[in-house]
Amino acid sequence: MSLKNMAMFSVLMAGSIFNGSAGDILTYKVGRCEVSLLVERAAAGNIGILIDAADELKKKYMPSGTYTSQVNAFLIKTPDRAIVVDTGFGSALFDNIRSLGVDPAKVEAVLLTHMHGDHIGGLQKDGKAAFAGATVYLAGQEKDYWLPPNAKYRNDGAAAALAAYGPRVQVFNPGEVTARLQELFPGIIPLAAFGHTPGHTAFLVRSEGQSLLIWGDLVHVMDIQIPVPDISVTYDVDPAAARVTRKKIFDWAAKNKIPVTGMHLASPGIGLLEALPAGGYTFTPVKN
Ligand SMILES: [Zn+2]
To answer: Of 39, 94, 160, 260, which residue is the least packed, with the fewest Cβ within 10 Å?
Structure first.
């Protein structure tokens, strides 16, 4: 554990919120691309969000009764462009992007895994597009669920955030991991991970034979959802579908030895999944 992580850990133990600051960054190379995990926030999480988690499982995997609830955004530097995946709260995000040598105004695309507040908080500043030169990309299914004026769960915050980008909003249709993979940009492939929300999307980064899967909110509480992927959380719009998707994508990533990362994995939150003979998975951090 690095000094920085130890400092974060002690803050967490004290039960207060650690706000990400410039420098809370983990960079992983994928061929000619660089993917950076940018920490937006880490705090002690409430295990009350777990669905159908037996007490014995909670005791086994989370003996302290809490977990690190972290929020991450990502910057992908490809040889041709800078792409942001989710925007966290927009707290440390802009300083972190600048510290990696990228001017937020030069970011070409913002890809959204879904439209919950902790993923779109940095899209706008004072009603204006925070990424002045970017187009926002999201699954059509996600836009259709939250944005129509008569939507059952109309998301006004999401609508305002997208409105700041005017016509620079594009929808895509994410593919299945079992189908032929279709790129959105060279080396970037949106994958259907529906369940957490109706258009929830994971992004596979692929370059020169190497890969990294940014799986969005497939997992909120890694301590228990990785060993026991049957457990969903109350934030999942469709917990049963989220469970099926989690198991399908875990299986695919583990079999293909694709490193994974996500918006709520605690640092160091880039690693490899391995299936256990008795069911469930382990997560081993990787670096390069
Ligand atoms: Zn989230």
So the answer is: 160
Q: How far is the CA of 277 from the centre of ligand 1 (A)?
A: 30
CA of 191 to the centre of ligand 1 (A): 17
208 CA → ligand 1 middle, Å: 30
- Of 231, 216, 224, 221, which Cα lies nearest the Cα of 262? 216
**Beta strand pairing status for 33-44 and 50-51?**
unpaired
* Ligand 1 center–CA 264 separation, angstroms: 7
Cis preceding linkage at 268, omega within 30: yes
Residue 54 alpha carbon to ligand 1 centre in Å? 23
Closest alpha carbon to 31 in 78, 94, 84: 78
Task: Work out the angle at residue 177's Cα, subtended by the Cα atoms of residues 259 and 202, and round it to the nearest 5 degrees.
Answer: 60
CB atoms within 10 A of CB 93: 25
C-alpha 116 – ligand 1 centre gap (Å): 6
| CATH code for the domain defined by 3-285 | 3.60.15.10
Distance CA(26)–CA(23), nearest Å, equals: 9
Question: What is the CA(119)–ligand 1 centre distance, in A?
Answer: 6
The tokens of 67 are what?
């977990």
Tens of pLDDT along the chain (288 residues) come to 333 443 343 333 333 455 666 669 999 999 999 999 999 999 999 999 999 999 999 999 999 999 999 999 999 999 999 999 999 999 999 999 999 999 999 999 999 999 999 999 999 998 999 999 999 999 999 999 999 999 999 999 999 999 999 999 999 999 999 888 999 999 999 999 999 999 999 999 999 999 999 999 999 999 999 999 999 999 999 999 999 999 999 999 999 999 999 999 999 999 999 999 999 999 999 999
Q: Rounded to whole angstroms, how far apart are CA atoms 176 and 117?
A: 26
- Predicted TM-score (pTM) of this structure: 0.93
